[in-house]
Amino acid sequence: MITCNLTTPPFAAKGTRTVRRANLKQGKGVRSVMRAMALAGLGLGVIPMLGGCVNVSAPDKPIVIELNINIRQEVIYRLAADAANTIEENPEIF
Amino acid sequence: MRSLIEKPVAAATLALAMLAGLGMAAPAGAQARGEAYAAAKAQGQVGEQRNGYLGVVGSQSADVRSMVRDINNKRRAIYTSKAASLSSTIDEYAFTTACRLIAETSPGEKYEGLDGSWKTRGSGAPERDPKCP
Lengths: 94, 133
Hints:
The complex is a heterodimer of chains A (94) and B (133). Chain A is mainly alpha-helical. Chain A has a domain at 10-51. Chain A is 52% helix and 0% strand. Chain B has 133 residues and is an alpha+beta fold. Helices cover 57% and strands 9% of the residues of chain B. The chains are: A mainly alpha (94), B alpha+beta (133).
């Protein structure tokens, strides 16, 4: 009898328990471990689906990321008065 | 006799007024916007961009384009020295100046709108960047 599908995948079932442990230590059982984890993950994934539906909908509008980081807001306020003076002092180019 | 006295007085007053007018006009004329620049701006051939530099609206003559280049070089020199003395970046100083310049445009003049296209200043407030002070 196969006791547990999660820990004893069919392709690894030919060896004895001690052999499998030895394989694990040597790194040969990585695939079986990964498979077990994948199956466990599947099992976890199924539980919330049974409990109820979680709907994730995309936003209607595109997500806009402001990349204009060259302009710092606090600096703009500090410069405002000086900029006004500059315009007044150089009417030939403004 | 009255007319003899009044005439020289009137003439002197007129001469004084003309001198005063010339005296006032000379420094202002040296500093104020050049004729070509004023005309180009009034006719909407050039417009204020959001980056603090003058832009050529549509296709204009080589004279207009070289004038814009010249003005922008001078602007950049000022932005550079001001930014350095106020420990900000050239872009920040130029942007702040642009906010002011766009706000100060007269009706009929061109400026760059928030969508990047040229807008004609109307009687109301111009479109301005939300970052503007």
